[in-house]
Amino acid sequence: xxxxxxxxxxxxxQAASLERSAGTALFERRPDGVRLTPxxxxxxxxxxTILDCLTAEExxxxxxxxxxxxxxxxxxxSAGAAIxxxxxxxxxxTDPQITVTTTEGTTPSLIRALRAGSIDLAVxxxxxPHRPLDGESPRLHVETVADTExxxxxxxxxxxxxxxxxxxxxxxxxxxxxxxxxNAEPLLGVWPGLPGRPHIVHxxxxxxxxxxxxxxxxxxxxxxxxxxxxxxxxxxLLHVEGAPPEIRRVLVARLPGRPAxxxxxxxxAIASTT
Length: 274
Known about the structure:
Elements: H1 5-22, E1 27-30, E2 33-36, H2 38-62, E3 69-75, H3 79-94, E4 98-104, H4 107-116, E5 121-126, E6 141-155, E7 165-167, E8 175-178, E9 199-203, H5 207-215, E10 221-224, E11 235-241, E12 247-254, H6 261-272
Helix pairs in contact: 3-6
């Protein structure tokens, strides 16, 4: 629900008071919203550290059992199918006191959410040459948890039946199923080194929709090979020959500084299942 005018005014007065106390600008007002300045991010990082220390001190002094700890994760679109469920299963066995909430998004939107403090971890993917995720300072803390090969999902029947590989030239006139993209994202679903202009017949953001279209014989799409355990019946994966291999890196990003133990535990669970 949108803030009422007086509530919004109160928020801005509190923000201005905080900036006066800090002696520097903490918030950057932009046409697309508000972002933390580098000083604001530094203050947020130290505030989290202080709160974590106070919580740990309270537990030590009172001898109380640790309360449920919340970790908010943002994931790129295909991560949920292959990474999320096994990671949560492992976490439930090793750290049952941790509660996880998740949201999906594009890499730029997840990085903005991470910088703004609305998520604690971002599970992202990158392609060579693996440039920094953004140009903001301080740099995000990024861990590589897996490298996976990009392959092509094809119908198990028809012209590709019984095959394990396909030459890139055979894909030129093939109908493709893609994901809708913005200017900030590359074309997803078409082989990156495909010669010529791709013949796109369907656009779908949902992975289940894309793979069911493949199973029905309505086109092909690219997928990371890690999705092989969750493919629906009627879909096969083919390696692409005649072109350099396309490797995608799975990353876990967070704000710099010492992480809370719960964030470390969630990162460890994700790394162990990729």
